[in-house]
Amino acid sequence: MIYSIICSFVLLHVISAALPPKDVYSAVIINAQDSPIDCQVIWNKPDGNAFESNLFSIDEKMQHIVKEHVHQMDTWEARAAIEEIRCGQLSLKAPFEGVNSPRANWHFTVTANEIISGEADSDTIKY
Q: What is the largest CA-CA distance in the chain?
């Protein structure tokens, strides 16, 4: 009995350690509202520090592409993960719904009441 509990615990730990990160590195923000909105993106750098984009406007029924940020870390480069998206009074924080592995070009749709995380045309990052 104790042996099976210990084995289950070890197996669960190994499986959870092998899960890929649920990071989003670049995005498409779609304004589904009938008026322009001002947005901002907050990234988390690999060293744990956050940084913010400047405010940018998205016209009604238009989209904005959020490009990936790569940072030089001593002798290697690392991607910054999108940590939060703010548009008007709305905010959506990671982990984003539907993201199960590292993603590029993840779609976010801004409606009158919420920012929706969606997969349309998103790319899975291959390692």
A: 62
Helix (H) / strand (E) element for 39: namely strand 37-44
Q: In this predicted model, what pLDDT tens digit does every residue of 65-107 receive, in sequence order?
A: 999 999 888 888 889 999 999 999 999 999 999 999 999 999 9
Instruction: Dump pLDDT digits (tens) for 20-30.
Output: 889 999 999 99
Going from N- to C-terminal start, the domains of the chain cover: 21-124
In the chain, DSSP finds a helix count (H) and a strand count (E) of 1, 13
CATH 2.60.40 fits 21-124, yes or no: yes
Phi, psi of 11 (to 5 degrees): -65, -45
Q: Are 115 and 97 within 8 A, CB to CB?
A: no
Q: What letter would DSSP give residue 89?
A: T
